[in-house]
Design a protein that fits this description.
By secondary structure, the chain is of the alpha/beta class. It contains 14 helices and 21 strands. Helices cover about 30% and strands about 25% of the residues. The longest helix is centred in the N-terminal third of the chain and has 25 residues, at about 120-145. The N and C termini lie far apart (about 90 Å).
Amino acid sequence: MDAFWWRFVRFLGFTHAKEPIVERPYPEPQMTLIGPHARPEPMVNERYEVVVIGGGPGGYVAGIKLGQHGKKSLVIEREHLGGVCLNWGCIPSKALIHAANLRHEMSAMGKVFAGEVPEVDAGQLQNWKNGIIQKQRGGVASLLKSNACDHVQGTARLTGPKQLQLTNKDGRKQSIEFDQLVLATGAKVMEIPSFPFSEPNIGYAKDAVNYDSVPGRLVIIGGGVIGCELGMAYRKMGSEVTIVEMLDTILPGMDKDLLRPVQKSMRKAGINVLTKAKAKGYTSNRKELVVEIELDNGGIEKVPADHVLVAVGFRPNTEELNLEAAGVELSERGWVPVNEQCRTNVAHVYAIGDVTGPPLLAHRASHMGEVAADVIAGHSAASDAVAMPLGVFTDPEVAQAGLTESEAKEKGYAVRSGLFPISALGRAGAMNQPEGVVKVVIDTNSDLILGVGITAYNACDLIAEACLALEMGALAEDLSLTVHVHPTLSEGVMEAAKAARGEALHIVNRRR
């Protein structure tokens, strides 16, 4: 029965009639599973309007948006959808931080909760954390599918201006042609030669979020965001923590007014912070590592450790892409320069997220993914955010948006700032979270808000109000007159805006 008569039989109501087996002139696509909603792999010599290399928070968002625009698109991810952020960065680290904070808060309440502080079951903690990751991976795959964007697990290497070779996880190679390309390959961790990752107990953040037990002693090389976040989390779970930072401060670049509460919290927690110090090397035996640290005064300190976490920075994932095949130019440090529309020097090639250079932020990557997809679809769009917020999930959290006070002065503004202590808020006392400060920086001449910084419990959530104010060009008066729910921590933003104008109600105004 040929295809016409088969369809006729189905039309007459014989709905269970089976389509006859027909010899196909091409092989059926094979499945590469990426979560529960995987789509078939593309055919050999498949052609797409847009190919996105990288399935992290920039790449998969670009894929979703391209699908919404009706573009035939493919997202290629070499490991798991969600990239670093979902699989061993943002999400798993915040899960560990949340668990650590719960344990710490019970301890901090003293006699209110009777009994011993609960021990950490690392196995159950990992199971819970991994369950979150698996669910999120499946959600990303489902979103790509529902927006008609293909995705495949494999690696990509450009073979021409508009062609690449896809190597699937089983080693099978396929040729993919495209009209436009989005690079979303992110960045990889930097390794210190004297602390190789080949050593079983030396690793990076991916290892640190997967420890099968809480380290008794943890040495962290690098006092940036990752080092401080995980250092505080593991200290709260019972580890002895030493942070080694080459510069004169942890979290370099952070406003000093915002940094002080974090430094105070670290001292109180018993974290050993060594600044102006350099980790020179280590010795190892079956029981432990001993890290040799050169101090600022020239002395040497030897610190025993069960694990060493290296958190000294990232470099771009561009080496294996063969970008020269398309003529894509790189910066001196290997990043991919782009303009406000996320375009590279090649008209049909875009780049988004960490591969374009600092700041390396997941939300920046997602925003750029949307912009690139809109531009490809012919819409007017640009990545020109006034406020690209920074969030650090220490205790207390730190968040910044807009200009710091020093940056505003460097740009020539007549600057005035308002500083409001979190301890003055009733809600902070009721939560036993009194540490922190809100800082609002304004232009004296126009009252325009230039920047906002918050160090407080849940500061990374509170900063969203400041971002909106900055994007809308709000004045300090606007923020100070906006009614906030009482009692909340968000009142601190309102009070800091009032303080910048000399109108604070719950602290004494500084004399001008």
